[in-house]
Amino acid sequence: MNDPRRVSSRENSSFKALRELIGDPRRQGCALVDGIHLVAACFARGIHVKQLLASESGQQNAEIAALLKRGAGLDCLILRDGLFREISGVGTPTGIAAVIEIPAVPAGEISGDAVLLDAVQDAGNVGAILRTAAAAGVRDVLLGTGCAGAWTPRVLRAGQGAHFSLAIREQVDLAAALASFPGTSIATVASGGDSLYDLDLTGSIVWLVGNEGAGLSAELVAAASLCATIPLAGGSESLNVAAATAVCLFEAGRQRLIPPGDTVPTQRDGDIKKGPYKAGLMET
Question: Are 53 and 39 in contact (CB under 8 A)?
Fold first, then answer.
């Protein structure tokens, strides 16, 4: 490994560059991944690691030492523990992080299933949805304006490596993207839609998922092929948006496992039709 450079002051130019990177990853073209699991995932997936960071105390950890050895030849910074904590953003960081290049925005149209996020603002929710999409075998995730940045540290931590299995697009005109999709589009609403369990979900589907408080925009609800509501127990008003997305994606996956010729729940009339539906929210 190249001799690591030690950083002990906030005035250090490398430290200042890291703070700028955290503030606006897309503008910088790079992102900071934090923790043993995510750094190991970058190496395993062949993600371009530009720089390794370790805390002074983190160097003593055997797993971190192994990752630093694996990154022999990379630029490496050893930060004072307090500075590393500041960069990490968590109270008790593991002591290793990496600066990676953000993968290029995918070209071409959506293929197969996709999830479209409309102004989902909470970083934990966005990261959890990305993680769920990857686990459900969905490749394309499109984030509209108002969403938490996909490559910010909190979203990356919540995604737990899912980013590296996905084609992620940000700042997307969701209405335009929806118009170009040839399959079924389903707007998820808290009430007024068809029961999720009455729908045929065996074909390609674009799932529309809305803001934590306001739900989906009226424009997207109107543009969707149909609306779906998850039936809840009496007294329950809504699900967290990430939990609701997981229910939808895995219900579709369950239906696709049913052998040909067996019964799959479908809409009562068998047609895909538009509302009117009430634009609701999938969570509180």
Answer: no
221 pLDDT more than 90? yes
Residue count of the chain: 284
Task: Report the Cα–Cα distance between both ends of the chain, in Å, rounded.
Answer: 49
Which residues are within 8 A (CB) of 27 and not within 5 positions of it... i.e. 6 or more apart? none
Can you name the residues that pair with 80 across neighbouring β-strands? none
What confidence tens digit (pLDDT) does each residue in 154-180 have?
999 999 999 999 999 999 999 999 998
Rounded CA-CA distance 54/163 in Å is 22
Superfamily (CATH H level) for 114-256: SPOUT methyltransferase, trefoil knot domain (3.40.1280.10)
CB 251 within 8 A of CB 196: yes
Nearest to 52 by CA among 20, 89, 7, 11: 7
